Amino acid sequence: MRDDLTNRGYLPRRNPAFHVPAAASARSEAAPRAVTDTTGAASPLDAYRVAKEPYYRAVADEIALYEAAYSVRMPMMLKGPTGCGKTRFVEYMAWKLGKPLVTVACNEDMTASDLVGRFLLDANGTRWQDGPLTMAARFGGICYLDEVVEARQDTTVVIHSLTDARRVLPLEKKGEIVEAHPDFQVVISYNPGYQSLMKDLKQSTKQRFGALDFNYPEHEVEAEIVVHESGVGLDAAKKLVHIAEHARNLKGHGLDEGISTRMLIYAGSLISRGVAPLAACRVALVRPITDDPDMRNALDSAVTTYF
Ligand SMILES: Nc1ncnc2c1ncn2[C@@H]1O[C@H](COP(=O)(O)OP(=O)(O)OP(=O)(O)O)[C@@H](O)[C@H]1O
């Protein structure tokens, strides 16, 4: 049930910051494909397999481009506004390529040790615990740093030696240099709308990545996604997309960000469970994105145009 809800967008996939993907808990359906390190031992990344095919509706040639990038282990940057499908895409690609996916939700309190690892004290003394980046590098996973720009620049630089020709990670505290497993890849997500001079990636970080642009899909495709993910009918889904398009035109004119595909799925989910469309749109589309009374009125009247 939880997986069903997660796949339909009701439940968060990425909290806490360093997590086992929801799909991993439903692993029993797929034949287990053990991850091995170079010595052939089983790996802790087994828990990070995406076992069930995630629903992903391709919008252009992003799947082929990503596959080509992965074939040369090019680090990738997924650029686009919030809730437009970047995370779903990387989950789908990890499944398609049969690689474990280790996701880290970046934040400004994150330190390099949170990524790389640290010594822990337990009953038997101190022991080293790999962080998510080290684990993915050691055992060959895709490490997805979501909203990487939220991390401080001195944290982000730890990925530099892994994202150029060296493909190594020095663990200074441990006195070890980890050579990245051949399957290892770093993927970051980046919302260009949020960037400011104070908060941006260094050029020396950006230039280590290939980049794929994401945006809200065109009308028919977005409606198809909303139908699939929320269970709402196609007519209502199309109306929801019209409302979103209206709001997206107000970005920069009173709205910081437009209504995302994720929000449309929330609205569709409420409608498909019997909530009146006006109320569903207010709760899921209008109230979350603005507190400005005039803007709320403008969006409410856009809603009443369609419902
Ligand atoms: N092309 C798509 N195919 C299938 N589902 C999609 C697609 N685009 C968006 N979605 C749906 O929209 C929801 C939000 O997308 P997702 O979580 O991938 O956004 P995101 O771009 O990673 O957002 P954020 O930057 O906030 O993390 C997904 O859970 C999925 O249901």
TrEMBL record:
Record's keyword terms, sorted: ATP-binding, Nucleotide-binding
UniProt-recorded Gene Ontology molecular function terms: ATP binding; ATP hydrolysis activity
Domain ATPase dynein-related AAA: 76-209
Every CbbQ/NirQ/NorQ C-terminal domain range: 222-305
Gene3D superfamilies xref list: P-loop containing nucleotide triphosphate hydrolases (3.40.50.300)
Pfam family, one: AAA_5
Domain of life: Bacteria
Record-stated family: Belongs to the CbbQ/NirQ/NorQ/GpvN family.
Name this protein carries in UniProt: ATPase associated with various cellular activities, AAA_5
Organism (species): Nitrobacter winogradskyi (strain ATCC 25391 / DSM 10237 / CIP 104748 / NCIMB 11846 / Nb-255)
